[in-house]
């Protein structure tokens, strides 16, 4: 193994050229997604030609855009504050349920899904928190509103985790618990701990992580279990007929193993001397398992989307976000451990993303590819998401703590 000084001198992130390249790529992404701003309020998905694929505002996209453009505002990107404010206004009005409280998944329209999803509310809170740090008008009121809803309906003190979804009028709670919503809730908690300067959010993130990673994932050979019933019994066959589902696919999602690994390291750094020893160890195990079972698992380049409980590829799609999260996790692990193998992964992943996903002709990144790295026939024409790619250009340049909304002030 290399000595720490040798690793530091060879890491890409320590090289000015690489840091400039990441910054330039991030700015290109921010410019591309200005086109997702809807005149009627909020943000919508773009297609491959940088045209709106829908005129209906999407709450998840709007919250993520608000988060990203708030971070860009803090960095000093001209025009970003206008877009962040556009998102705050839509989240506070167009996308909010004035009758029953909470947030819809999209702006209301004929036949829309009226359910109240934890996943959506968590991103509304993340976007609002970043906007608070960026001093965007209306952000603090939005944050207070969404946190009140999350506390009243989604956080379960008895379960020490977030529940999944409710009916529109909050009369019926779904008989399902999900790791994905709780993973992003952990991300939210980490940012709230910094933005609000309140360590209670660190404790909540630790409780979620202890349940889903240190107990359940550890008991399943470091595969992240995604689906549970209301009593936290595992649902191993959940969505067995939908291995490609974008949010709740069957089996194991290695990209989430990488994402969790990074979040564990942020949590450890945020807790400081109060951090349990297992956080860093669990992060290593998650990343190693995810990459060992996903990378070229079907003989084709890149990471497969999902695997089954034996580690056999289930969905061989190549989604951009899994690679972006793996690169960010590799950077975090290289920073935390100084182990050269994580730097090797970091370079391999960025080489792959640069060669495969970045669209030199039309801008942004290709997001949904098949195993042969061609456009996925169902979603390959869409470029709806700034969040994962943009954060991948930021996270390697930042310390493990504080979280993005504070750390980007130093760039």
Q: Would you write up a description of this structure?
A:
- The protein is mainly α and 411 residues long.
- It has a single domain (4-410), classed as Glycosyltransferase (Alpha/alpha barrel).
- Helix content is 50%, strand content 5%.
- It is built from 14 helices and ten strands.
- The strands form five sheets. A two-stranded antiparallel sheet has the order 1-4. It has a two-stranded antiparallel ribbon with strand order 2-3. A two-stranded antiparallel ribbon has the order 5-6.
- A hairpin with a 5-residue loop joins β7 and β8.
- α9 runs parallel beside α11 (320-337) and α11 (320-337) runs parallel beside α13 (387-394).
- The longest helix is centred in the middle third of the chain and has 20 residues, at 200-219.
- The chain is globular, with a radius of gyration of 20 Å.
- 50% of the residues are buried.
- Residues 1-5 have low confidence and may be disordered.
SSE order and pairing:
Layout: H1 4-10, H2 16-32, H3 59-75, H4 80-92, E1 116-117, H5 118-133, H6 139-154, E2 155-156, E3 161-162, E4 165-166, E5 177-178, H7 179-195, H8 200-219, E6 227-228, H9 254-271, H10 278-294, E7 306-307, E8 313-315, E9 318-319, H11 320-337, H12 340-356, E10 368-369, H13 387-394, H14 404-407
Antiparallel strand pairs: 1-4, 2-3, 5-6, 7-8, 9-10
Family: Belongs to the N-acylglucosamine 2-epimerase family.
GO molecular function, one term: isomerase activity
Organism: Salinisphaera hydrothermalis (strain C41B8)
Offer a concise description of the structure.
By secondary structure, the protein is mainly α. It has a single domain, classed as Glycosyltransferase (Alpha/alpha barrel).
């Amino acid at each position: 193994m290399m000595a720490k000084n040798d690793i530091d001198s060879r890491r890409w992130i320590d090289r000015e050229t690489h840091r400039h390249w990441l910054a330039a790529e991030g700015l290109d992404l921010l410019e591309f997604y200005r086109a997702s701003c809807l005149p009627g309020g909020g943000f919508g998905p773009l297609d491959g030609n940088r045209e709106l694929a829908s005129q209906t505002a999407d709450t998840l996209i709007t919250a993520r855009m608000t988060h990203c453009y708030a971070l860009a505002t803090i960095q000093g990107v001209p025009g970003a504050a206008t877009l962040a404010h556009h998102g705050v206004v839509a989240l506070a009005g167009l996308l909010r349920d004035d009758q029953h409280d909470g947030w819809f998944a999209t702006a209301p329209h004929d036949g829309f899904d009226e359910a109240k999803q934890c996943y959506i509310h968590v991103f509304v809170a993340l976007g609002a928190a970043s906007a608070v740090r960026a001093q965007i008008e209306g952000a603090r009121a939005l944050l207070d509103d969404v946190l009140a809803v999350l506390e009243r309906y989604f956080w379960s003190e008895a379960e020490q985790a977030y529940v999944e979804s409710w009916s529109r009028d909050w009369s019926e709670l779904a008989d399902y618990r999900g790791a994905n919503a709780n993973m992003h809730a952990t991300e939210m908690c980490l940012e709230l701990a910094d933005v609000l300067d309140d360590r209670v959010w660190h404790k909540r993130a630790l409780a979620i992580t202890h349940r889903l990673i240190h107990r359940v994932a550890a008991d399943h050979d470091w595969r992240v279990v995604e689906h549970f019933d209301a009593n936290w019994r595992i649902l191993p066959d959940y969505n067995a007929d939908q291995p490609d589902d974008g949010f709740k696919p069957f089996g194991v999602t290695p990209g989430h193993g990488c994402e969790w690994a990074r979040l564990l390291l942020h949590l450890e750094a945020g807790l400081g001397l109060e951090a349990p020893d297992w956080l860093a160890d669990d992060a290593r195990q998650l990343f190693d398992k995810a990459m060992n079972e996903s990378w070229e698992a079907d003989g084709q380049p890149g990471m497969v989307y999902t695997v089954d409980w034996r580690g056999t590829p289930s969905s061989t799609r190549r989604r951009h976000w899994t690679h972006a999260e793996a690169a960010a996790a590799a950077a975090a692990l290289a920073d935390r451990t100084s182990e050269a193998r994580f730097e090797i992964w970091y370079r391999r992943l960025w080489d792959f993303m640069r060669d495969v996903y970045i669209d030199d002709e039309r801008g942004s990144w290709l997001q949904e590819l098949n195993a042969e790295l061609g456009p996925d026939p169902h979603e390959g024409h869409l470029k709806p998401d700034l969040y994962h790619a943009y954060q991948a250009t930021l996270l390697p340049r930042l310390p493990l703590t504080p979280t993005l909304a504070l750390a980007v002030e130093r760039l």
